[in-house]
Design a protein that fits this description.
Number of helices: 5
Shape: elongated
Length: about 240
């Protein structure tokens, strides 16, 4: 028995349409997913302070400038010792000597003057001692030390180096928060949360605890660590 060619083509088209329709249904079902973000934050204390103390001394002669620089350096070291900051935490850095007569762009009326600038870098894990010392730095000015902030910050910079120690727990917290949000979304959509489709850990940020205009993260010994994870779950 032979069937007309038109009938055969018609049946084939119906079967093909049915298969394509089933395929699209499966595709649409497989592509149902929700993308959510989970946030984890933690307040941490700085574990290292860097405090560059830069001073300037002048004199009509090089010897006079050197003597004044030595006096200022001794005054700074004595001040730090009173604040229970050990000498081993202080490193002498960046010594600059300027002869104004050899600097043509300065208006010195032909008079010779020597300027000595030097930086003492304090590096300490004693955060509280550094904070206390920085608050009393006016004592140095009262004693005749001329401080300069031409190079770098005028106060301590506080660093947090323990990020690797808290990363695993914070990632777990962010992931749990993301799953909670995804579960709520699935419930609201009258769906069931499926398996994990994709995950992005996100970037860890160390922020100032008090995020106000003009406040820098490095100026605050107490900081906020934040991570935002992006997670995608299938919906069933």
């Amino acid at each position: 028995m032979q069937f007309p060619a038109a009938l055969i083509l018609g049946v084939s088209a119906i079967i093909s349409a049915s298969l394509i329709g089933d395929g699209l249904t499966d595709l649409r079902t497989g592509d149902r997913y929700v993308s959510v973000k989970g946030v984890a934050e933690r307040e941490v204390n700085a574990d290292l302070a860097l405090w560059p103390i830069r001073f300037v001394a002048t004199g009509d002669t090089l010897v006079e400038a050197q003597n004044r620089a030595r006096s200022s350096r001794d005054a700074i070291m004595a001040f730090l010792k009173l604040q229970a900051i050990d000498d081993s935490a202080v490193e002498l850095q960046r010594l600059d000597v300027t002869d104004t007569r050899a600097t043509p762009y300065q208006n010195n009326n032909g008079e010779q003057k020597f300027i000595i600038s030097q930086t003492l870098m304090v590096r300490s894990t004693g955060i509280d001692r550094i904070r206390q010392a920085a608050q009393g730095v006016s004592e140095l000015v009262d004693s005749g030390v001329v401080l300069s902030s031409d190079y770098g910050p005028s106060g301590p910079t506080y660093l947090f180096n323990g990020l690797n120690d808290i990363k695993p727990e914070m990632i777990a917290e962010a992931t749990a928060a993301a799953r909670e949000a995804a579960t709520q979304f699935a419930n609201d959509a009258q769906a069931e949360l499926g398996g994990l489709r994709r995950a992005n850990q996100g970037v860890f940020q160390i922020l100032a605890r008090d995020q106000a205009p003009g406040v820098m993260e490095g100026q605050q010994p107490v900081k906020t660590v934040r991570v935002v994870s992006t997670v995608e779950y299938y919906l069933r």
